[in-house]
Write a structure and sequence with these properties.
alpha/beta, 24% helix, Rossmann fold, 11 strands, four-stranded antiparallel beta sheet, seven-stranded mixed beta sheet, 246 residues, 2 domains, globular
């Protein structure tokens, strides 16, 4: 779960270890390689854009993230434009033909106002023939039920040390927001590091209302990274949206 937990320098250095390349990254990489100019909102350590450049992308690649610690890692990847901030602190006008939000960053837009502001900024940044692609967890699948302290995730860092991560959801879960803690444990630390985050789970009907209001039309939608259909049990709501024509 990519979120604000990784604003800590030591945690940011472990992000790629804890979040190795997977099917979702392959999905987005194909899109990036087919686009001339790309804005990655919430780019984190820059894995996606860095891989795109290494794979031969010759156009403009721009990563935006509000966490300075994440951009410390991203700036180790050359030939990409890295910007500290978010969609409310930057302004682009029709400069990109693809805008992506990966790693469930969309779920960090907790209020209607934040969501509207973000979508408006994305719409401004896209040219008229562009695409906005993002994913949010399908609330009907109730993924948070598996985020329990008993389920410990482990990864080995570059020095061979084992990092352990566990989650604990605050209950009862009310409405469409889920608050949880993440506990990170590393042998070199005196004590575990704990962060608290909240995610918004938005269903497709409400999501489509916000997209329409912002001037987007849904072009494609999938329920998993294999491009399967969106069903009640599908884990993701993966949306490819295009600006509506006047």
């Amino acid at each position: 779960m990519a979120d604000r937990s990784f604003s800590d320098l030591s945690l940011a250095a472990l992000y790629d270890t804890l979040n190795p390349w997977g099917p979702g990254d392959d999905f987005y990489l194909d899109l990036v390689l087919s686009a001339r100019s790309v804005l990655d909102v919430g780019c984190g350590t820059g894995q996606l854009l860095g891989r795109a450049r290494e794979s031969g992308h010759a156009g403009r690649l721009c990563g935006l993230d509000p966490a300075a610690a994440m951009l410390v890692q991203a700036r180790r990847r050359a030939s990409v434009e890295w910007v500290l901030g978010d969609l409310t602190t930057t302004r682009w006008e029709r400069e990109f033909d693809l805008v992506v939000m990966t790693g469930h960053v969309f779920q960090l837009l907790l209020t209607d106002g934040q969501l509207r502001d973000a979508l408006a900024a994305v719409r401004r940044a896209l040219d008229d023939g562009g695409r906005f692609v993002f994913e949010t967890r399908n609330p009907a699948a109730r993924a948070w039920r598996s985020w329990t302290p008993e389920r410990v995730r482990e990864a080995t860092d570059p020095h061979g040390e084992v990092v352990r991560v566990r989650h604990d959801v605050e209950t009862p879960v009310a409405g469409n927001r889920v608050t949880f803690t993440e506990t990170f444990d590393h042998p070199d630390w005196e004590r575990p590091r704990v962060s608290r985050s909240t995610l918004r789970f938005t269903g497709p009907e409400i999501l489509d209302g916000f997209l329409t209001e912002a001037g987007f039309a849904v072009h494609e939608r999938f329920g998993d990274w294999g491009r399967g259909p969106l069903t009640p049990t599908a884990p993701e709501i993966i949306t490819v949206a295009r600006p509506q024509r006047p």
